[in-house]
Amino acid sequence: MEYAALVDIYEHLEATASTNEKTAVLADCFDAASESQLPILATLIRGKLFPAWDSRELGVSSSLTREAIRKATGVDDDRVEEWWREYGDLGDAAALAVEHRTQQTLFSETLTVESVHETLTDLAEYIGEGSQSRRVDAVAKLLTSADPDEARYVVRTVVGAMRLGIGEGTVRDAIAVAFLDGSDEAIAVVERAHQLTNDFRVVAETARDEGVEGLRALDVELFRPLKVMLAQKAEGVGDALTEVQGDADAADETDATDIADDTETGQNAVRCEYKYDGLRTQIHKRGDEVRIFTRRLEDVTEQFPEVVSAVRERITAERCILEGETVGYSPETGRPVPFQELSQRIKRENRIEELVESVPVVTHLFDALYVDGESLLDESLRVRVGRLGDCVDTDPNDSDDSDVLRPATAVAPADESEAREFYEDALSSGHEGIMVKNLDATYQPGSRVGYMLKVKPLMEPLDLVVVGAKWSEGRKSEFLGRLHLACRVEESGELRDIGWLFSGLTDEQLAEITHRLEPLVTERDGREVRVRPEVVVEAEYEEIQQSTESESGYALRFPRFAGFRDDLSFDEVDSLSKVERLYAEQ
Ligand code: ATP
Fold it and tell me: Within a domain: residue 56?
């Protein structure tokens, strides 16, 4: 298939805002694909070369891409940068550069989908000395053969911003339309297959070759991480107990303050566990082979060597997939450290040995998804927790603090007051709150279901002033969507920045904030601006963290836009001393 034909499809997808039309275009594309093209198109259509769980990266930054554009076209980098700034998209800049090429093309060949895919896939294999220039050369070679439109999409694929408005849901629906009957049921089957495999190549091929039955038969596989089950938020312990039991049996009219027994077994139907503030950890083990994945499916095995050895020593199952939360503990106080300290483990691979000493971790295990050939997803949590207990060689009464693997602290509370007491214990031990889980529930990969509710103290929102902003990337690149926020020093009235916020804004709010900020711009630097401090916003967040990167010394974890505070002027925004107080209290 010529790459130009795929470019036509990309253009069609980009030109329509209708999700139905995008689905139909994609479905036709999948339907027409040859046997070997389908797995390529299933990922390349969203500009991806690898499935989500595959940690390989192309390793081509935007500056290397610019070098490749210059090499292939002879167009000066300043000009390319100017176009990039003007259009907000390096793909468009590449198309213009090809159009204005100043050098003759010596080795031009017709690009095919297969050749582009192969060249780009190979980029991930270049390692070591000279690998950067090999990558530049490979991309430049593609651009040498590309017409402007082809160049646009090659570059967008390389930098990972396709701007087609195609999410996983559209690909899922298109597979259901192309190879099944397109019904809601078919879509649900494709969805589950994808949550399990995280691989549209496998899902598309299975749908084509084996239909619904084949998709249903797909199961967990070792070393292919699956999406984790997510929790819903409850307003408090009582609310969590009501909701989790409501889900256990919607028809059951039991008073929620009493915890219902499971009608068949007479056992308690609710389990509460400490909610740890760490890294969701999915452990895959086959003999001595161990890999650790995060909920974003990243492979972090190298970063947690002590967890790997503990798994080898303490997990008795030959093959298994277990889940837990990995938490950093302070060696001095024995209390959990804030998440950002643990996250150094993920960022700085070269200091791992040092960090193993300074931020020791414990993985608190709470679920078993697969044990020795048997998938447990359709089993109840009660069964799964039982299997977990069977395959971990851990004495729950063992108080040896050096244990890296421990079961999550849990109770099956008899009533609400016992659950509340457990919640208080969790907080006073320095944990975030509790998880309230339905013991009769199956595991739903990737879904946010009421089988698992999180209860934690709510943080008071902060009123902060916008002091700078960045243009968003991708589909929303014409908006100033990343807001640099500041609080105020009470005594002097000076503003001190407290990090960036970029979620919670609707498209209308993005347009409005851009409209409000543009006249306030005082300085520009690339795609970033500084603005006069006039726009005050309310920010919700999950936690305040210490930060060396901001003037205030703090940053908000998961800040979300909660509205404009037009009733406040910039000298009325929340003070640094309030931030300090909230930090100390949390
Ligand atoms: P979410 O994970 O629900 O999208 P989030 O990223 O804001 O939200 P939290 O609100 O902190 O996360 O709560 C959910 C997370 O809590 C889980 O993804 C998991 O990593 C973590 N967690 C901690 N303790 C447990 C536990 N005992 N059982 C399940 N998850 C737990």
Answer: yes
